[in-house]
Amino acid sequence: MKVLITGGTGMIGQRLAELLIDNGHEVALLTREPGKSSHYKLFGWDPQAGTIDEAAVPYADCVVNLAGSSVADGKWTAERKQEILHSRLDGLDLLYRELQKPGHHVRALLSASAIGIYGDRGDELLFEDSPTAAPADDFLADVVLQWEAAARRIGELGLRVVLPRIGIVLSPEGGALVPIAKTVRYGAGAPLGSGRQYMSWIHIEDLCRLLVQMLEAETWHGVYNAVSPQPATNKELTETLAQVMHRPLILPKVPAFGLKLAMGEMSEIVLGSQRVSSRKVESQGFRYEYPQLRAALESFYEPG
User: Fold this and answer.
1) N or C: which end of the chain has fewer CB within 10 A?
2) Which fold has domain 2-171+201-228+277-290?
Protein backbone atom coordinates (compact mmCIF):
# COMPACT_ATOMS: atom_id res chain seq x y z
CA MET A 1 0.00 0.00 0.00
CA LYS A 2 1.24 3.48 -0.87
CA VAL A 3 0.41 6.03 1.82
CA LEU A 4 0.57 9.79 1.33
CA ILE A 5 0.83 11.75 4.61
CA THR A 6 0.17 15.44 5.22
CA GLY A 7 1.75 16.77 8.41
CA GLY A 8 4.20 13.90 8.18
CA THR A 9 7.10 15.81 9.73
CA GLY A 10 5.23 16.25 13.03
CA MET A 11 5.53 14.04 16.11
CA ILE A 12 2.68 11.69 15.13
CA GLY A 13 3.49 11.69 11.42
CA GLN A 14 7.13 10.72 11.94
CA ARG A 15 6.32 7.70 14.10
CA LEU A 16 3.40 6.65 11.89
CA ALA A 17 5.62 6.73 8.81
CA GLU A 18 8.17 4.47 10.54
CA LEU A 19 5.49 1.94 11.54
CA LEU A 20 4.03 1.89 8.03
CA ILE A 21 7.47 1.17 6.56
CA ASP A 22 7.99 -1.57 9.16
CA ASN A 23 4.67 -3.10 8.03
CA GLY A 24 5.84 -3.23 4.42
CA HIS A 25 4.06 -0.16 3.06
CA GLU A 26 5.47 2.70 1.01
CA VAL A 27 5.28 6.25 2.38
CA ALA A 28 5.43 9.70 0.79
CA LEU A 29 4.97 13.07 2.45
CA LEU A 30 3.21 16.21 1.29
CA THR A 31 5.36 19.15 2.35
CA ARG A 32 5.92 22.83 1.72
CA GLU A 33 9.64 22.02 1.38
CA PRO A 34 9.86 19.27 -1.27
CA GLY A 35 13.55 19.99 -1.87
CA LYS A 36 14.47 19.10 1.70
CA SER A 37 16.52 15.95 2.40
CA SER A 38 14.32 13.10 3.61
CA HIS A 39 14.14 9.33 4.01
CA TYR A 40 10.78 9.51 2.24
CA LYS A 41 9.53 10.51 -1.17
CA LEU A 42 8.39 14.14 -1.01
CA PHE A 43 5.68 15.96 -2.94
CA GLY A 44 5.27 19.71 -2.74
CA TRP A 45 2.07 21.49 -1.77
CA ASP A 46 0.93 24.84 -0.41
CA PRO A 47 -2.64 24.61 0.90
CA GLN A 48 -2.91 28.34 1.51
CA ALA A 49 -2.01 29.06 -2.10
CA GLY A 50 -4.04 26.09 -3.35
CA THR A 51 -1.10 24.43 -5.14
CA ILE A 52 -0.01 20.78 -5.14
CA ASP A 53 2.32 18.54 -7.15
CA GLU A 54 0.12 16.91 -9.79
CA ALA A 55 1.80 13.55 -9.17
CA ALA A 56 1.02 13.48 -5.43
CA VAL A 57 -2.54 12.15 -5.28
CA PRO A 58 -2.10 9.69 -8.20
CA TYR A 59 0.81 8.16 -6.24
CA ALA A 60 -1.34 7.07 -3.31
CA ASP A 61 -3.66 4.25 -2.33
CA CYS A 62 -4.50 5.98 0.97
CA VAL A 63 -4.10 9.51 2.31
CA VAL A 64 -3.42 10.35 5.97
CA ASN A 65 -4.22 13.94 6.86
CA LEU A 66 -2.42 15.15 9.99
CA ALA A 67 -1.88 18.75 8.89
CA GLY A 68 -2.83 21.50 11.33
CA SER A 69 -1.19 24.29 13.29
CA SER A 70 -0.68 23.51 17.02
CA VAL A 71 -3.43 24.94 19.21
CA ALA A 72 -0.91 25.41 22.04
CA ASP A 73 1.49 27.79 20.27
CA GLY A 74 0.73 31.28 21.47
CA LYS A 75 -2.35 33.07 22.75
CA TRP A 76 -5.56 32.79 20.78
CA THR A 77 -5.72 36.18 19.13
CA ALA A 78 -8.25 36.63 16.33
CA GLU A 79 -5.43 36.15 13.82
CA ARG A 80 -4.14 33.04 15.56
CA LYS A 81 -7.61 31.51 15.63
CA GLN A 82 -7.92 31.96 11.87
CA GLU A 83 -4.52 30.31 11.40
CA ILE A 84 -5.55 27.31 13.56
CA LEU A 85 -8.78 26.89 11.58
CA HIS A 86 -7.46 27.39 8.06
CA SER A 87 -4.37 25.23 8.63
CA ARG A 88 -6.88 22.38 8.96
CA LEU A 89 -9.45 23.30 6.33
CA ASP A 90 -7.27 24.53 3.46
CA GLY A 91 -5.44 21.21 3.06
CA LEU A 92 -8.66 19.18 3.04
CA ASP A 93 -10.21 21.56 0.51
CA LEU A 94 -7.18 21.09 -1.72
CA LEU A 95 -7.34 17.30 -1.36
CA TYR A 96 -11.06 17.37 -2.20
CA ARG A 97 -10.32 19.28 -5.39
CA GLU A 98 -7.62 16.79 -6.42
CA LEU A 99 -9.62 13.70 -5.50
CA GLN A 100 -12.48 14.89 -7.71
CA LYS A 101 -10.19 14.46 -10.71
CA PRO A 102 -9.95 11.14 -12.59
CA GLY A 103 -6.74 9.16 -12.80
CA HIS A 104 -6.09 8.34 -9.15
CA HIS A 105 -6.63 5.14 -7.11
CA VAL A 106 -7.02 6.58 -3.60
CA ARG A 107 -9.54 4.44 -1.74
CA ALA A 108 -9.31 5.76 1.82
CA LEU A 109 -8.74 8.96 3.77
CA LEU A 110 -7.70 8.87 7.42
CA SER A 111 -8.12 12.42 8.70
CA ALA A 112 -7.13 13.47 12.22
CA SER A 113 -9.77 14.91 14.51
CA ALA A 114 -9.74 15.71 18.23
CA ILE A 115 -11.69 15.10 21.42
CA GLY A 116 -11.96 18.87 21.79
CA ILE A 117 -15.18 18.47 19.79
CA TYR A 118 -16.97 17.47 23.03
CA GLY A 119 -16.13 20.65 24.94
CA ASP A 120 -15.83 20.85 28.74
CA ARG A 121 -18.04 18.00 30.04
CA GLY A 122 -16.94 17.33 33.62
CA ASP A 123 -17.05 13.63 34.53
CA GLU A 124 -19.64 12.65 31.89
CA LEU A 125 -18.48 9.57 29.96
CA LEU A 126 -18.32 10.54 26.28
CA PHE A 127 -18.92 8.26 23.29
CA GLU A 128 -18.69 8.90 19.57
CA ASP A 129 -22.42 9.61 19.39
CA SER A 130 -22.44 11.94 22.42
CA PRO A 131 -23.60 15.49 21.65
CA THR A 132 -20.78 17.82 20.64
CA ALA A 133 -20.23 21.23 22.21
CA ALA A 134 -22.07 24.23 20.79
CA PRO A 135 -19.69 25.92 18.29
CA ALA A 136 -20.68 29.39 19.49
CA ASP A 137 -19.56 28.54 23.03
CA ASP A 138 -16.32 26.67 22.36
CA PHE A 139 -13.62 27.64 19.85
CA LEU A 140 -11.93 24.22 19.74
CA ALA A 141 -15.23 22.41 19.27
CA ASP A 142 -16.06 24.75 16.39
CA VAL A 143 -12.70 24.06 14.74
CA VAL A 144 -13.08 20.28 15.05
CA LEU A 145 -16.66 20.30 13.77
CA GLN A 146 -15.55 22.16 10.62
CA TRP A 147 -12.47 19.91 10.34
CA GLU A 148 -14.58 16.75 10.39
CA ALA A 149 -17.14 18.22 7.97
CA ALA A 150 -14.37 18.98 5.45
CA ALA A 151 -13.12 15.38 5.70
CA ARG A 152 -16.62 13.90 5.42
CA ARG A 153 -17.16 15.83 2.20
CA ILE A 154 -14.33 13.78 0.70
CA GLY A 155 -16.31 10.66 1.62
CA GLU A 156 -19.00 11.86 -0.81
CA LEU A 157 -16.50 11.08 -3.58
CA GLY A 158 -16.73 7.39 -2.69
CA LEU A 159 -13.71 7.07 -0.40
CA ARG A 160 -13.67 5.29 2.94
CA VAL A 161 -13.18 8.04 5.52
CA VAL A 162 -11.91 7.38 9.06
CA LEU A 163 -11.92 10.14 11.67
CA PRO A 164 -9.88 9.32 14.80
CA ARG A 165 -10.74 11.83 17.53
CA ILE A 166 -7.31 11.99 19.13
CA GLY A 167 -6.86 12.64 22.83
CA ILE A 168 -3.76 13.95 24.63
CA VAL A 169 -0.85 12.13 23.00
CA LEU A 170 1.81 11.06 25.49
CA SER A 171 5.33 11.30 24.08
CA PRO A 172 8.65 12.65 25.35
CA GLU A 173 9.19 14.15 21.87
CA GLY A 174 6.47 16.77 22.08
CA GLY A 175 2.89 17.58 23.00
CA ALA A 176 1.41 18.21 26.45
CA LEU A 177 3.61 15.78 28.38
CA VAL A 178 6.87 17.66 27.74
CA PRO A 179 6.07 20.88 29.66
CA ILE A 180 4.34 18.93 32.46
CA ALA A 181 7.36 16.64 32.88
CA LYS A 182 9.70 19.63 32.84
CA THR A 183 7.88 21.32 35.74
CA VAL A 184 7.80 18.05 37.70
CA ARG A 185 11.51 17.44 37.12
CA TYR A 186 12.42 20.84 38.55
CA GLY A 187 10.11 20.56 41.54
CA ALA A 188 7.50 22.95 40.18
CA GLY A 189 4.84 20.42 39.20
CA ALA A 190 1.30 20.90 40.45
CA PRO A 191 -2.25 20.02 39.42
CA LEU A 192 -3.86 22.69 37.25
CA GLY A 193 -7.09 24.35 38.35
CA SER A 194 -9.19 21.96 40.42
CA GLY A 195 -7.11 19.00 39.20
CA ARG A 196 -10.38 17.09 38.79
CA GLN A 197 -10.67 17.71 35.06
CA TYR A 198 -10.26 14.57 32.96
CA MET A 199 -7.40 14.24 30.47
CA SER A 200 -8.16 11.46 28.02
CA TRP A 201 -4.72 10.38 26.88
CA ILE A 202 -3.12 7.85 24.54
CA HIS A 203 0.48 6.60 24.26
CA ILE A 204 2.15 7.63 20.97
CA GLU A 205 2.84 3.97 20.12
CA ASP A 206 -0.77 2.92 20.66
CA LEU A 207 -2.02 5.85 18.61
CA CYS A 208 0.22 5.07 15.65
CA ARG A 209 -0.53 1.33 15.84
CA LEU A 210 -4.23 2.23 15.84
CA LEU A 211 -3.83 4.49 12.79
CA VAL A 212 -2.01 1.70 10.91
CA GLN A 213 -4.83 -0.72 11.72
CA MET A 214 -7.40 1.83 10.55
CA LEU A 215 -5.58 2.08 7.22
CA GLU A 216 -5.06 -1.64 6.71
CA ALA A 217 -8.53 -2.93 7.62
CA GLU A 218 -11.50 -1.72 5.58
CA THR A 219 -13.88 -2.46 8.47
CA TRP A 220 -12.82 0.87 10.04
CA HIS A 221 -14.90 3.80 8.85
CA GLY A 222 -16.38 6.89 10.46
CA VAL A 223 -15.58 8.37 13.86
CA TYR A 224 -13.55 6.70 16.64
CA ASN A 225 -12.26 8.01 19.95
CA ALA A 226 -8.48 7.54 19.81
CA VAL A 227 -7.87 7.45 23.57
CA SER A 228 -6.70 4.92 26.14
CA PRO A 229 -9.25 2.87 28.11
CA GLN A 230 -8.40 4.68 31.36
CA PRO A 231 -8.79 8.48 31.30
CA ALA A 232 -6.99 10.21 34.17
CA THR A 233 -7.71 13.42 36.00
CA ASN A 234 -5.12 16.17 35.80
CA LYS A 235 -4.28 15.49 39.45
CA GLU A 236 -3.82 11.75 38.81
CA LEU A 237 -1.60 12.39 35.80
CA THR A 238 0.57 14.91 37.66
CA GLU A 239 0.92 12.74 40.76
CA THR A 240 1.65 9.56 38.79
CA LEU A 241 4.28 11.36 36.73
CA ALA A 242 5.93 12.67 39.90
CA GLN A 243 6.01 9.14 41.34
CA VAL A 244 7.52 7.71 38.18
CA MET A 245 10.14 10.47 38.04
CA HIS A 246 10.74 10.23 41.82
CA ARG A 247 10.10 13.93 42.31
CA PRO A 248 8.02 15.50 45.09
CA LEU A 249 5.03 17.71 44.35
CA ILE A 250 5.73 20.67 46.61
CA LEU A 251 3.58 23.39 45.11
CA PRO A 252 -0.19 23.66 45.68
CA LYS A 253 -2.59 23.59 42.76
CA VAL A 254 -2.17 26.25 40.10
CA PRO A 255 -5.38 28.29 40.40
CA ALA A 256 -7.70 28.43 37.41
CA PHE A 257 -7.90 32.24 37.51
CA GLY A 258 -4.10 32.45 37.21
CA LEU A 259 -4.11 30.18 34.17
CA LYS A 260 -6.90 32.19 32.57
CA LEU A 261 -4.96 35.38 33.22
CA ALA A 262 -1.76 33.96 31.73
CA MET A 263 -3.23 31.99 28.84
CA GLY A 264 -6.50 33.72 28.06
CA GLU A 265 -9.05 31.64 26.18
CA MET A 266 -6.35 29.04 25.46
CA SER A 267 -6.60 27.97 29.13
CA GLU A 268 -9.58 25.82 28.13
CA ILE A 269 -7.03 23.31 26.76
CA VAL A 270 -5.84 22.50 30.28
CA LEU A 271 -8.92 23.38 32.32
CA GLY A 272 -11.55 21.64 30.16
CA SER A 273 -12.58 18.11 31.14
CA GLN A 274 -13.22 15.30 28.65
CA ARG A 275 -13.72 11.78 29.97
CA VAL A 276 -13.76 9.87 26.71
CA SER A 277 -14.59 6.19 26.14
CA SER A 278 -12.45 3.86 24.00
CA ARG A 279 -15.16 1.18 23.85
CA LYS A 280 -15.81 1.49 20.10
CA VAL A 281 -12.11 1.12 19.25
CA GLU A 282 -11.82 -1.93 21.50
CA SER A 283 -14.95 -3.47 19.94
CA GLN A 284 -13.10 -3.36 16.60
CA GLY A 285 -10.48 -5.69 18.07
CA PHE A 286 -7.74 -3.17 18.83
CA ARG A 287 -5.57 -4.07 21.81
CA TYR A 288 -3.56 -1.47 23.67
CA GLU A 289 0.07 -1.95 24.64
CA TYR A 290 -0.28 0.82 27.22
CA PRO A 291 -3.82 0.85 28.62
CA GLN A 292 -2.64 2.07 32.05
CA LEU A 293 -1.17 5.49 32.78
CA ARG A 294 1.69 4.42 35.04
CA ALA A 295 3.10 1.90 32.54
CA ALA A 296 2.74 4.47 29.75
CA LEU A 297 4.73 7.06 31.71
CA GLU A 298 7.32 4.49 32.80
CA SER A 299 7.98 3.70 29.14
CA PHE A 300 9.35 7.26 28.81
CA TYR A 301 10.79 7.98 32.24
CA GLU A 302 12.68 5.15 33.90
CA PRO A 303 11.54 4.71 37.51
CA GLY A 304 14.23 5.84 39.88
Assistant:
1) C
2) Rossmann fold (3.40.50)
